[in-house]
Design a protein that fits this description.
Oligomer: single chain
Radius of gyration: 15 Å
Strand order of the largest sheet: 1-2-8-7-6-4
Distance between the termini: 18 Å
Order of helices and strands: EHEHHEEEHEEEH
């Protein structure tokens, strides 16, 4: 589009045109949310970021995972910093992907699962930011979309 959107969200396989479009949004100062749907879709992330790194793997989750560590000073999670809103322990995650360490080290981890694996990362590149959620809000992956925090999380990404 002529006007750069404030937020682009992707969760699937990206071809070269989609990667270029996503890079265009971030290059113009927008935010992108890249949800890692599976190991195969994770292969597009380094291309979006312009990096060469190792491969992602599927996490082995017994029963479920929960968010264990959250950076409430980050713009994404700052709206939840008050003790009345900071409890994310009720959100269950059944599946997530583990990104390679060389990719994680290039970004900032905003939230981790109780296993210590990154759940939400941000990469400040060009004029914008690529946010990476190592899972999705699909019911097969998590309960994230069912929580009242979900709309506020997405809204925090709209602020440039």
């Amino acid at each position: 589009p002529e006007d750069t959107p404030a937020l682009a969200i992707t969760g699937g396989l990206l071809d070269e045109n989609a990667i270029a479009a996503l890079r265009g949004v971030v290059g113009a100062g927008g935010n992108a949310l890249f949800t890692v749907r599976d190991v195969e879709s994770a292969r597009a992330l380094p291309k979006v970021l312009g990096l060469t790194v190792g491969e992602a793997t599927e996490a082995r989750v017994t029963d479920h995972a929960r968010l264990g560590e959250i950076d409430f000073k980050s713009a994404v999670f700052a709206p939840f910093a008050d003790a009345r809103y900071s409890d994310f322990s009720g959100i269950r995650f059944w599946k997530y992907r583990i990104l390679p360490a060389d990719l994680v080290s290039k970004g900032k981890v905003l939230a981790r699962f109780d296993s210590g694996d990154p759940a939400w990362l941000s990469y400040a590149i060009w004029k914008g930011t690529v946010h990476v959620l190592t899972t999705t809000w699909r019911p097969a992956d998590s309960q994230l979309a069912l929580t009242t925090k979900f709309p506020s999380l997405l809204h925090s990404l709209l602020v440039r």
